[in-house]
Amino acid sequence: xxxxxxxxxxxxxxxxxxxxxxxxxxxxxxxxxxxxxxxxxxxxxxxxxxxxxxxxxxxxxxxxxxxxxxxxxxxxxxxxxxxxxxxxxxxxxxxxxxxxxxxxxxxxxxxxxxxxxxxxxxxxxxxxxxxxxxxxxxxxxxxxxxxxxxxxxxxxxxxxxxxxxxxxxxxxxxxxxxxxxxxxxxxxxxxxxxxxxxxxxxxxxxxxxxxxxxxxxxxxxxxxxxxxxxxxxxxxxxxxxxxxxxxxxxxxxxxxxxxxxxxxxxxxxxxxxxxxxxxxxxxxxxxxxxxxxxxxxxxxxxxxxxxxxxxxxxxxxxxxxxxxxxxxxxxxxxxxxxxxxxxxxxxxx
Length: 349
Prior knowledge:
Elements: H1 13-26, E1 32-36, H2 41-51, E2 57-62, H3 65-76, E3 80-85, H4 94-103, E4 109-113, E5 115-116, E6 121-122, H5 125-135, E7 138-142, H6 154-157, E8 161-165, E9 177-181, H7 183-191, H8 203-211, H9 224-240, H10 242-263, E10 268-269, E11 282-285, H11 292-301, E12 308-310, E13 319-322, H12 331-348
Parallel strand pairs: 2-3, 2-4, 4-7, 7-8
Antiparallel strand pairs: 1-9, 5-6, 8-9, 10-11, 11-13, 12-13
Helix pairs in contact: 1-9, 4-5, 9-10, 10-12, 11-12
């Protein structure tokens, strides 16, 4: 018995390269784009382990849990790490980055998460990128949550390493991701004796065996179903128009913030300033004495399909996240999510 998802002809190098080109168009980039065969943590870690080594002085900007993870990887590589952490209810500023360079002009690597879905904030990458570019440091950006939800212009912003995943605003699969790599970054990789080689983490393997070979022969069998799903979600974004997709996410975020306050039940936006709030997800602070995990469980008991989760770790007791991304970036989903939370609060009172 044939099955449309299983009985597929092998993916060709030309098909794979065409999907990479689609990703490059989405990012408006002239740099190399390499699709990685795994969830976005694969290229996120691969980029850091390729670029950082003993002697690297890294400024690690922390606005949520992923920034903390990057610092750990950088230290594992032997880099000296300067953590610039801000409260998770806000965003880092270009002025803070400038101050860090003034204190340590030898910083040569800067890592930043564009939008932290886990905490609901987003950072001013264009302004930060201008500072980083002035000082000549390599700029590494996690854009997994932001791509498709808000403007992302890595070339214009001076980003050297930009990692995206399709599983959030793009509405695609989690098992495939992509890394944009500038010429400066490729050179940094090549100059590092400890950059992964002959490894699943290796970006250099992809460059030598794929990019430099004219993208004629794939290094290994591609994750075909995920690649086809990625291609389909890129096609859908192109058909809808990227501006329209971003507008849908912005409307969902604005409605969630305004609606939560309008309920009058003590829910407050966790990120104080709307300008610092990510369009991909809205975080809410629960009223005093109300456990966020218990409230979410109660809200989902009658509405299991809603994109509601409690915060992670220490935030599980006080933060609710409304994941209005991808197909859930709609006013209907926002309305249903807030209604479920309101009913759960009424039942808790």
